[in-house]
Design brief:
Radius of gyration: 22 Å
Structural class: mainly alpha
Number of domains: 1
Helix content: over 70%
Order of helices and strands: HHHHHHHHHHHHHHHHHHHHHHH
Number of helices: 23
Distance between the termini: 50 Å
Shape: globular
Oligomer: single chain
C-alpha cells in the first residue's frame, strides 16, 4: 500500500531533513534509501549506484584534483605573484585596483576553476588592498570581488563544468573551450564599467610601476601564467584527458609552490591536504546522494514527464531557455551549485535534446546562471565569504552590487540567444561538430 506513495514520502523526508539542518548529501541518501525500502526494491541498489557512480566514473576524479590544485595555489603564495603582475599590467589605468581585481580573477580562474577559491584566495588580498586607507568604499570593493569571482567557473578549467559533464555526458573539453568567449566578454564589460565608475567617482590611479621592472615581474609570474597554457594545450593536443589534466594542474601547482617559489612548508602542505580532504568529503557525499536520487527519478520517469509537459504545450527553444533561466536564477538564490547540477539539471536534459538544444551551449548557460546565484541574496555564498574574510557589511555590498548583477544578466541573455558566442571556439578547435 505504501509503495504507491513512495515518491511523495521520499520528497517530504528530503525537505524535512534538509530544513532540519541535515547536510543535503546525507538527506538525499537517507530519503532515497527509504524510497527503495518502501517501494519494495532492493535497498542494496543504493550502494550499487554509489559504487558505480563514484568509482566507475573517471570524470568524477577531476573534482578533488582541481580542489587540491586551488588550495595549493592559495597556500603557496602563487596568487601574490599574479597580483603583482596584474598591478604592473593595468594598475596605472583609472580605477587601477578595480582593474587589477578583474584581471587577477580571470588569470586565477585559469588555474582554480572555482569561484569560491577565487573570492577566498586572491580575492581577499585584492579587496584588502582596495579598502586600505579608504581608497575605495568597502561595499564597492566587496561587490566587485564577488562579481569578478563569477568568471572562475566560466573560464577553463571549471569544476561546475565537470559536474555538468557528469550528468549530461557532454564533452568536458568542448565545455572548457565554450566558456572562454563568454568569460572574456564578462571581463571586458566589467573593466569598461570599472573605468566609467572610477572616472565618475574619482577613484585613485595607482602609482605607475617603471617599465624597466616589467621583465622581472613577468619572470616571477611566468611559471604560474603557464599553468592554463599547459592545461588546455595538453587537453586539445591529445596529450592527456581533462581528468588527467586536473592531476597535471595539481602536480604543477605543487612543484611551483615547493620548488620554484619555495613558499609551501611541510606543515602548509599538511594543511592543504586536510582542507582538500574535508572539501572533497562534502562534495563526494553530495555526489553519492545524487547518484541514488537520480536513479529514483529515472525509475519514476520524472525527466520523461518533464519532456512530455513541454512537448504537450509545444514550447519552442527560446521559451524553454527563458523558463530555464528564470528557474535556475531562483534556485541559485537558495541551493548550492553542486546540488543544482547533480539533482535538478538531469531533469531537463531529455527536454533539451528533444528541442535540439546543444548540450555544450546549455551547459555554459546554466553554469553562468548558477554563478550569478552565488552573488544573489538571500544565499549569496560569495557575499558571505567576503563578509567573513574582509569584514564588509552585506548591506554595503548589496547596494553596490546591482550594476554588476545587471551586467552579468546581460551576458547571460546574449549567450542564451546567440549560441555561436559559446560554440564558435570549440568548433574552430575541432572539439565538437
Amino acid at each position: 500500500m505504501l509503495a504507491e506513495y513512495a515518491l511523495p514520502i521520499m520528497l517530504v523526508i528530503l525537505i524535512a531533513t534538509t530544513v532540519a539542518g541535515l547536510p543535503m548529501g546525507i538527506a538525499m541518501i537517507a530519503s532515497s534509501v527509504l524510497y527503495l525500502f518502501i517501494s519494495g526494491r532492493d535497498v542494496g541498489l543504493g550502494a550499487e549506484m554509489v559504487l558505480n557512480g563514484v568509482f566507475g566514473n573517471f570524470v568524477a576524479l577531476a573534482v578533488p584534483l582541481f580542489i587540491f590544485a586551488a588550495n595549493i595555489m592559495d597556500a603557496g603564495k602563487i596568487s601574490d605573484r599574479l597580483l603583482t603582475f596584474c598591478l604592473a599590467l593595468v594598475g596605472r589605468s583609472p580605477g587601477g585596483m578595480a582593474q587589477v581585481n578583474i584581471v587577477t580573477s580571470l588569470i586565477f580562474s585559469g588555474m582554480s576553476g572555482s569561484a569560491v577559491s577565487d573570492a577566498a584566495g586572491v580575492g581577499k588580498v585584492v579587496t584588502d588592498m582596495m579598502i586600505k586607507d579608504n581608497r575605495y568604499p568597502p561595499g564597492y570593493a566587496g561587490a566587485l570581488t564577488a562579481a569578478t569571482a563569477v568568471v572562475g567557473p566560466i573560464f577553463p578549467p571549471s569544476i561546475p563544468m565537470v559536474y555538468y559533464a557528469l550528468v549530461s555526458s557532454a564533452s568536458i573539453g568542448a565545455l572548457f573551450l565554450a566558456g572562454v568567449v563568454p568569460a572574456l566578454i564578462i571581463v571586458v564589460l566589467q573593466m569598461a564599467a570599472a573605468f566609467v565608475v572610477a572616472k565618475r567617482r574619482g577613484f585613485p590611479v595607482e602609482e605607475a610601476i617603471p617599465f624597466r621592472q616589467f621583465p622581472l615581474i613577468l619572470l616571477r609570474a611566468f611559471p604560474a601564467l603557464l599553468m592554463p597554457v599547459i592545461l588546455l594545450g595538453g587537453i586539445y593536443s591529445g596529450a592527456f584527458t581533462p581528468t588527467e589534466a586536473a592531476a597535471v594542474s595539481a602536480f604543477y601547482a605543487l612543484v611551483l609552490a615547493v620548488f620554484a617559489y619555495r613558499a609551501l612548508s611541510f606543515r602548509g602542505f599538511a594543511a592543504v591536504v586536510y582542507s582538500t580532504v574535508k572539501t572533497t568529503a562534502v562534495v563526494t557525499t553530495v555526489l553519492c546522494g545524487a547518484f541514488i536520487f537520480n536513479y529514483v527519478i529515472a525509475v519514476e520517469r520524472i525527466p520523461q514527464m518533464v519532456f512530455e509537459f513541454f512537448s504537450y504545450y509545444q514550447f519552442e527553444q527560446w521559451m524553454f531557455l527563458l523558463l530555464l533561466n528564470i528557474l535556475f536564477l531562483l534556485l541559485g538564490c537558495l541551493l548550492d551549485v553542486s546540488t543544482i547540477q547533480l539533482v535538478i539539471v538531469p531533469l531537463f536534459i531529455p527536454t533539451a535534446l528533444g528541442l535540439d538544444i546543444d548540450l555544450v551551449h546549455l551547459g555554459v548557460v546554466l553554469v553562468l546562471n548558477m554563478m550569478i546565484g552565488l552573488i544573489t541574496p538571500p544565499m549569496g555564498v560569495l557575499l558571505f565569504i567576503i563578509k567573513a574574510l574582509n569584514g564588509i557589511k552585506l548591506s554595503d555590498m548589496i547596494r553596490e552590487l546591482w550594476p554588476h548583477f545587471l551586467l552579468l544578466l546581460t551576458v547571460l541573455f546574449l549567450i542564451t540567444y546567440m549560441p555561436d558566442l559559446v560554440l564558435w571556439l570549440p568548433r574552430q578547435a575541432g572539439a565538437m561538430q
